[in-house]
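Customer ticket, subject: "Can you confirm the structure for Protein phosphatase 2C domain-containing protein?"

Message body: Hello, I'm evaluating your service for our small team and ran a test protein. I'd like someone to confirm that this is what the system normally returns, since I don't have a reference to compare against.
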Amino acid sequence: MHLSHALTHRGTVREINEDAYLELPHLGVWVVADGMGGHAAGDVASQLVIDGIQQAVEHLEAETITLEVLKKSLIDSNRILQQMSEHDFDGKVAGTTVVVLWLYQDKYHLLWVGDSRIYLMRDQQMKQMTKDHSQVNDMIDEGLLSPEEAETHPLANVITRAVGVDTQLDIDYRTDKVKDGDVFLLCSDGLNKELNDIEIERTIKSGNIIDSGLALLHASLVRNARDNVTCILVKNSHKNINIIDDSDKTIPIFSHI
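Agent reply: Thanks for trying us out. I re-ran your input and got the following:
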């Protein structure tokens, strides 16, 4: 059984929301796409990727979805966006990041391009499962920056991969066994720009997926959410779960100190 809760907000600065998401728990598929700010039609690009995956899987049974179906959808969207850039946007790039979570039987599958992220909370410990395709992450790998320095680096917003940018789409992929009680967080970088991993982990630990999702969004808005913010929380469970939490747990809300 898969429970999920998705939220998106344009933030307090941006005029439009260039994020888009897909939530198909009955098929075990969730997607977040973040249109590239400062480029042409980022909102069009992110929605096109979302629509492409939905159209690719919505007529299928869960057992007939494959990794190749998901990859082909992203490759097709990449080609369409390149054509749109040439013919509809005067050569300006229309691009988007994307993260995909696919749960089937006892496995999870992650696909991603760009710097949107997927985290996994397992046994009360959270880990980032995707690796940002970004300029600062490359610099961290080369030993030129520490993770802490990367957060405030001038190139922090520069990504090295996106759907719609290059003729060849390089998609990263990861798979492993999923456990009962695992909680996945898919998010655009508007969330992790405002909250660090410790704060995100603490919030997810503090409540059910609905309360935690609302708290994450609220905390980012309290900090003036400079970018669009989207998050999807997905819980894998073999039990019948009451997602309305009657406990007295307090969800931490973060603000400037």
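A couple of notes from the result: The beta strands are 2-9, 19-24, 29-35, 96-104, 107-113, 117-122, 125-128, 172-177, 183-187, 229-236. The helical segments are 42-57, 67-87, 135-141, 147-151, 189-192, 197-205, 209-222. Feel free to reply with more questions.
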